[in-house]
Amino acid sequence: MPFHDTQHVRSELVVLLEAQLDVLEKETFGGVSEAELCEYEDRHDRICELYDELLERESAA
Known about the structure:
This protein is an all-alpha fold. The protein is built from two helices and no strands.
């Protein structure tokens, strides 16, 4: 995986993980809506996809 692609994937991961942390904080201190929980699950799925992609590309290198 070229450096540019790796950086893009990592940047997306950072953004997604920060959003996940925000939801967990909200849940702890004030509650979250059903929509936010659905978005949380969608982000979780995307995070798993990105990690798999990074691992796959790393093992192929």
